[in-house]
Amino acid sequence: MCHEVWDLVDDRADIDGQRYLDNTNGTTRTCQSNHLYPKPQHSNSSFIVDPLQDLVVVVSSTPRVNVGAYADPEDHYVFRVDFRMLSSQVPHPDSACASLDCKHTFEAAFTCYDVDILKKPAICGDHIIIPYCTSTKHSSESHTFIQVIDWRKGKAKRYPLLGQYGGKLHVVDQRTIVVIGSLKLKDLITLYTLQEPDGSPQRRTMYLPPTYHRYLPTLNVYATPSFHGAAPHHDLIPGYVPSLESQIMVLESSSCILVIDMAIFSQKAIHSGTPVEIPWSDWGPQHTCCFPHHQSHKISVFGSKMAYALPRDHTPEPGESMEKLSIDSDCRFYVHIWDFNKRAIARSKHIHGPDSPDLLIRKPGRLVKSDYDVEIITDHPYTATVCHTSFSARGLHRLFLEQDRLTLIWVRPGAVDIQVISPV
Asked: CA-to-CA distance for 256 and 368, rounded, in angstroms?
């Protein structure tokens, strides 16, 4: 266990799955920090894990590349990618190579380029996708690219994201990605598909979010991990990977969260022949919910459910503002589970009846303050439950929601504490 949660103490590293955790509800496991897996010596490294394929990927990047006056612009290394087994840390036997060097073609000679990974890479089946941008200190422009790696074959290709600037990327499945960022001076949520046989991205649909006060704020994106490996894990329960129609994506800004029904990324949108731009009025009110928020509250998403750490044992009233949750104090918090699945809401109404005290259906209400210029009023219902046990907020690092359990992680001096509970 300790060797498999080493990166929880590093904000640059993130584990996208917890299937390797012991299924011990209500217990706490502690790992001493000096026993955690040693990190590579490279100063810019990202770590991603797919426990369903027993795969850990280490991406070491070059933060700055100097292109000489007479150098071949194609001959510049930007990433080194290592493929290891999660269980033993040895090179993965299913990969054609233990490591792979990824290169980039720069536009101009005799120029110093900065290379920045925009988000942790994503594993989805045979593919690893690394989003990154290049820029120079002499220009305010940056250019966004993805490296699409077939880790089994040991091959990589680079593709531009067609003028996309910055932003966050979420891998929906092996053929679909969503990028939240700017395109031609517009803030957009852009749907791409990766085409056969080479994985080149094709822009399909562009969703305009509500306008912001000044500029696109810094956003955190929460969604179901992209576990679509070819070989299922031995304890993978049926329905563990939810369908696209029963998933949500949460965009977190400084003062609010926007919950998006991922049914908008449907087969109809994916197979759109030409790129289509959809204004907020045509998709936002129908497919989103917006809530007041403070970024001290931890969030995790699985399927149509969101786990939310709040300093209260009752569901907030619609539109009620959120107070700060201090992880440096001894205050307590409760885990709230919100479910936005329409079928689950209808089923709950049928089982409990509309007046049952066991049924708590809420609506977002009116936002008093947000990052948006427009007033967002949505009346889509969701079910809300609260785990009755309170937890210490001191050192709280992450929540991991799964279909059948919730994992809480605290990082304290000298130790990482892990507790697994039932989210019901």
From this structure: 10
